[in-house]
Fold each of these.
Amino acid sequence: MEYSLFRALTQLGDDSLILGQRLCEWCGHGPTIEVDLGLSNLALDLIGQATMLLDYAGELEGGGRDADALAFHRNAEQFANCLLAEQPNGDFARTVVRHLLFATYASALYEALTASPDARLAEIAAKAVKELRYHADFAADWAERLGDGTEESRARMAEALDWHWRFVNDLFHDDRDWAACAARGLVPLRQSLRYGFERDVSAILERAGLALPRKVWPIVGGRSGQHSEHLSVLLATMQVLPRAHPEAVW
Amino acid sequence: MYDWPLWEVFIRARGGLDHRHAGSVHAPDAHMALRHARDTYTRRLEGVSIWVVRSSDIVASDPAQDYSMFEPAASKIYRHPTFYVLPEAVDHM
C-alpha cells in the first residue's frame, strides 16, 4: 500500500472535512441570509473535496473503507487535519480570519497540486482550486471590510488574528509522510508555500489596516493526531448518527 | 447590516439569452452585491453572467396610473400584425 500517499490524502481530506463541518455550524446563524448562504456554499465545496480525497485515500489503503467510513468511524487522534481547521467558529471575525488563512494557503497548495504526476490527485486539485480561489477572495473581502470598518469590527479582527495565528506553524508543517510524498514529487513541501502565503496575507491585512503578527508559535501536532480539545466535540456531533445506526442509509 | 441597501439581481442563464430578473439581495456596496447574488442565485448553475443594480436606481411606473398608462393599448388590436395573409410556404412567423 502507498502508505505515505494515503496519509497525505487523509491530511488534505480531513482539512476540508473538518473546516466544512465547522462552517456548517453557521447554517441558520449567519449575520444575514446572504452571508448565511455564502458560508453554506463554502462548506459544501469543502465537503465535496473531502469526499473525493478520502474516497481516493480509502482506495489506496485497500481495506474497503470509503470517505464515509473514514469520516464517521475514526476517533479524534486518527484525524490528520491541521489545528486551524478545527478551531471554533467564534464570532464572524474569527470565522473570516480562519478562512482567510486556510483558503490563502489551500488555494496555493491546490494550484501546485494540479501539476502533480498523480493524475487522480491532479484532477481533484483542478476542481478544488477554482473553489478555493473563490474562498480566499470571499474571506479577503470580509477581512478588508471588517478590519477597515468600525472600531469594534477592527478590534474583533485583531483579536481573531491573534487567536488563529498560533496555528500557522501547524498549517505549514511537513510531517514525515507529507515529506515522503514531496520527495517523490507528488506534492509540494508546504514550507515552500509559506513565503507566498505571508506575502499575500500581509497585503490583504494591510488593506484592512491590520498587521501580520510577528510572533511564531512553535505549535504542531494536527497531522499526527494531537488535536485541541475542540475536535472531539465537533466529531461527536458529526458522527453521532452513523455511529448510533451504522447501517443507516438515506 | 440592517442598513444595507437593496439590490435587484439579473441573471443570464446561457450565452445569447437576455438577463432576467432573479430576485434581490441586501449588500453594503456593488462588489458585495455581486458576491451575494452569486451565492444566493447561482448555486445550482443558473447563470453565466450577473447584473446588479441598486433598487432605488430603478424608475418604475406608478401602479395608481395603470389605467392611463396601459389600458389605452387594450383596444388597439390593429397594432398586432395578425391581419396579413401569409404565403403557404411560410409556416411560422
Note: The interface with chain B takes residues 31-35, 37-38, 41, 138, 141, 145 of chain A (CB under 8 Å).
Amino acid sequence: MIFDYIYNTVSAFVFSPLSYIISFVITAILAVTLTGIIPVFIGWVDRKYSARIQSRYGPVYVGPFGLLQNFADITKLLGKRFISTNVDKLSFNFTPVAVAAASFAMLLIVPLGGPGLEFISIPYSLLFIYTLLAISPLFLLVAGWGENNKYALIGGFRGAAQIISYELALVVVLSSVALLSGSYSIISIVNGQSSIWYAAYLPITLIVFVIAGLAIIEREPFDVPEASQELQAGWKVEYSGIRYGFFLIGDYVRVTVIAMLVTYLFLGGWLGPFLPGIIWFIIKTAVVLMIILTPRWIFGRPRIDQLIKFGWNWLLPLSILNLILVELFVIL
Amino acid sequence: MEHKERIRLNIGPVHPAMHGVLKLILDVEEDTIVKAQTELGFLHRSSEKIAESRFFSNYYPIMDKLDYVSALNMEILYASTVEKAANIEIPARAIYMRTIMAEIQRIMSHLIFIGSFGEDIGNITGFIWALRERELLMNVVEKISGGRLAPMYMCNGGMFYDFPEGIDNEILNVLSTIENKVSHEYSAMFTKNQIFISRTKGIGVLTKDMIKKYGITGPIARASGIQRDLRKVSPYLAYDKVEFDVPVADAGDTYSRFIVRTKEILESIKIIRQCLKDIPPGPYKTVVPWVMRIPKKDTFVKQESPRGEMGIFLVTDGSDKPYRLKLRSPTFFALRALEELLVNIRVADAFAIVASMDPVMGEVDR
C-alpha cells in the first residue's frame, strides 16, 4: 500500500500524529496527480492510434508529439460557459462528478504495476471494482432524466438496458476467475498465476470478459447509448464544458481499468522473467490496451436490440457454462 | 390492450446524421417507428426561376450548386441540353473528355456515399478513408479545371480548357490506387464486416413495385433488380463506344444499395481507362457566342447522374434566356418512398435507410 511507504518514510522525521496527517496529504496529492495523468495519457494514445488508423497525424502541436494536447483541451473545457435550459440542477450537476469519482476510485483500488502499489488495499478489490463499473446505469438514468431532453432520456434508458444485460456476464466471468484462484483480491489472483497464466485455462472467459467489459464502459462498437448519429450524444447531449470533460476522462479511466484487469486476471499481471514486474505490467497492459482501442475504429455500431440479444443469448450462457466448467475443474 | 406512449421525434433539418437539411418527423412507440413524414424544401433556392433571368452560358454556376456532390454531371447535363436545343455539334475529343469527367465525378460521389454511409452506422474510419481516396480525384479535377467542389469546367460547345499535359498518367495512377482500396480495404471495413452486414442486410427493402410506383431510378432501382441505366438504355456521350457492365442486385435492401454503388465505382474506373486510351486529338470545343438565341422549342434531356436519372426540360422562346427550365431530380422521388419505408423499423435503422438513398438536398429542393 502506497500510504504505508509514505508513512514509514515520514514518521522517521516527524512525530506520530502529525506524520499521519502529512503522509495522508502527500498520498492524496499523489493519488490525484497519478489518476489524473494516466487517463489523459491514455487519451493521447487513443488519439494518436486512431489517427494512424485513419491516415491522419493526430495531435502534433502542443508539447512533444502533441503529448500535452489533452491538457490543453481540458483547460479549454474549464473555460467554457455553462449553458443549460430547464435542467434538473441537482442531477445534472451531480452526475459528472459521480461518474468521474466512480471511475477514479477504480484506479485507487487496482495495484498500479506491482503488489503494494495501490492506494487503498482491500481484500475484495475485484468485487469493489465490479461494483463501481456496475453502478453506471444509475448515473446514466439520472443524467438522462435530469437533462430534460428526449434524446438524453432515450440514451439513458438504452445505456441502462445495455449495461444491465452485460454486467451479469461480467460478474459471472469475474466469479469464475475468483473461483479458480480462490480469492477476490487482485494480488492473490496474480500470485496464483505464477506457474501458468489463467488465459491458458480460460481462453473463452478472456474473450467474454473483454467484450462485456467494452460493453459496460460503452466503448465503441458498444456506444449505442450515445450513438452520435441517431441520438446526437445520447445521455450526454446537454452537457458541455468541464462537465463533459469529466465524462471524457472517466471514459479513459474505465478503458485503462479494463485493460489492467485483463492483465491482472488473465495475463499474469506483473509476473514475468528477467525484467522487473512493473515493466512487464506496462508492456502487457499496453498490448491489451491497443487491442481494446482497435474495435472502435474498425467496426460500425450494432442496433440496440441486436446488442442486447447478443448479451443475453451468447455472452451470458457462455460465461455460465464457463463457470460450471471451472467449478468442475476446481472440484476435481 | 397494452398502452404504448407515442413520442414524436423531430430529426433535422439540422441534425448531425442528416444529409443536408432533410427533416424527418418520426412517431415512435418504444423503439419502433409507426409513422414517418419527410419535410423538404429547406434548401429551396429557386434554381429553376433563376434560369429564366440568365443567359444560357451563365447558368453553369447554379448547376454546380444543384447537386454539389456531383457538380460535373450537372454541368454536362445542362451543356448537353443547351447544345441539343441550339443544334450545336461538339467535337469528338470533347465527348470523350466529358465522359471522363462524368465518370471521375461519379466515383467521387459514390466515395462520398460510402463514407457518409459508414459514418451513419457509426464507422468514422470508413468516412475518413473514403474522403482520403476522394481527395486524390479532387486534386485531378483541380488540375484539370481549376476548381474542386464546383469546377465550372463545362461551357456551351465543350470545355473551357483542354486537359493539361501528362494528366493521363496521373489519372491512371489514381484510378489504380482507388481500385485497390475499394476492392480490398473497403471489403474488410464494410462488406465483410459482420456488424455492417447485420446492420444493413434485410433492412429497408424496396420491392420492384415500389420502385415503379415512386419512379425511383439509378443505383437504388438497380439494387432492387431493375436493370436500367441510361448509359446503356439510351447511350449519350461516349458510352456506346466503351464496354462496361451495369451492376444489379436483387435483394433491394440497404446492403445491396451499398454493393451496387461500390461495384459502379469499379465500372467507372473501367470506362475512364478505355476513354483515356481512345481519346482522339483535335479541338476540345466548338466555339459558340456567349450570348445566343435559341428558337422556340421544347427540349428534354436526361442523363444518368450518380443518384439516378437527372433530367432537364428546357422551353425556349427565341430569346437569349430560357422561357422555362424544369429540373427532374432523382433523389426527390427516392425520398418520397421514405414515408413507406420507415414504418415498422427501429429508429437506428432509419438513419441507415436514409443514408442508403444518398440524398443531396441541394438537388432535391432545387
Note: Residues 88-331 of chain A form one domain.
